[in-house]
TrEMBL record:
Alphabetical list of InterPro entries matching this protein: CBP_BcsN
Organism: Skermanella stibiiresistens SB22
Extent of the signal sequence: 1-32
Protein name per its UniProtKB record: Cellulose biosynthesis protein BcsN
Keywords assigned: Signal
One of the Pfam families matching this protein, by short name: CBP_BcsN
Amino acid sequence: MTPTLRTISRASAVAALLLTSACATTSSPVSSASGSSDIGRWVPIEPARAHVALAPANTANSGTGTDTLSGRELRTSQGELIQTLTLSNNTAIPGDNELVASFDYGPSSIFATDIHAPKVGRYAMAPSALSGLIGEMLPRANVQGEPQIRKNRYGLYGYVAAEYPGQAKCVLAWQVLDGDAIAQGFGDGGAPRRAGIQMRVCDARAQPAELIASFDSLRLDL
């Protein structure tokens, strides 16, 4: 394992250890904000309603790839809110440019916990999980170099650059946050216990250094 990948893995493991020790008996905004008919199914949302956003393309340092086209969300019985924003895309390569944010509020009470239901969101990024994420979001892409570490307003995040030769350059970024790191973007008592965020952006003209600047503009908002 390379030093960079080891650093990212170690940071994710520590964050996961801290987060899994949290109590699961607090009130869940997920269950109170939606009817039971919405639990377990994807529903469309206006991008402006999402709890996560990137700066528009004309205000970010990247030239393209950050304008939001549509949004959808999934609420789970485990107290998760998963939101996916589809971003503009000027390529014909496999997959979508998208921003995925998973917020884990925990179940509304300990009695509502389903111990057999897996979490949907990604709240840690071990090397094996990263390999799966790359295969899912950048199918058949040529990964360029090792994972790198960068920083936005919420702390450190990891990313990799990739290429579809002759077609597009891409970046895949991920960030794992605990409740303290994201509380600044939420109202009193409204912050989730943890969050996992991933961004995949590919562009036919821009370079990875331009594309990753989009994730620097990440903003969480209730």
